[in-house]
# Entry
Amino acid sequence: MTEIMGRVWLFGDNVNTDVIHPPAFYSLDPDKVRAGLFHGYDPEMQPAIEPGDVVVAGRNFGCGSSRETSIRALRLNHIGALVAVDFARIFFRNATNNGLPCLTFANADDMTRLHKGQRITVDPDAATLRTEAGEEIPLTPPGDFIRRIWAADGLLNLLPQAGSAPQL
# Structure
């Protein structure tokens, strides 16, 4: 995978999927879905997001509903990666299956070294996060299969096409 470069959007613990993407923005219209990202938390956040930005959070990020609308909103806004102390299990699986890298801090206290708006580089293969000042923060290395899903931009892209051998 390539390195992901962007700004930090910082959150605390227990960020619920309804906070990530409120039900009022459920739609088949990608523009409506895109506009809903973190709308109830901070309506001015979504327009300020730039491609590659990284959401950084505490414990249990993505708790709540198992609907994939929050993942779709993150992807439509070109969030480059999510880095958290830990993730709600089904959220992690949905994000991974949709090609959105979710990495965890090797040391939970390292989250306090980051601040909103800070420019960082995330290297999923090396399991590191580098600040613009050159400070390196270790992340928990993901398994090979998880990295393959992220590199393929989602699980469906690893499934065999008709008449070809499986890539799993």
Remarks:
- Helices lie at 17-20, 30-35, 45-48, 69-76, 89-97, 144-151.
- The chain has one domain: 4-157.
- The mean pLDDT is 94.
- Residues 1 and 125 are 6 Å apart (CA to CA).
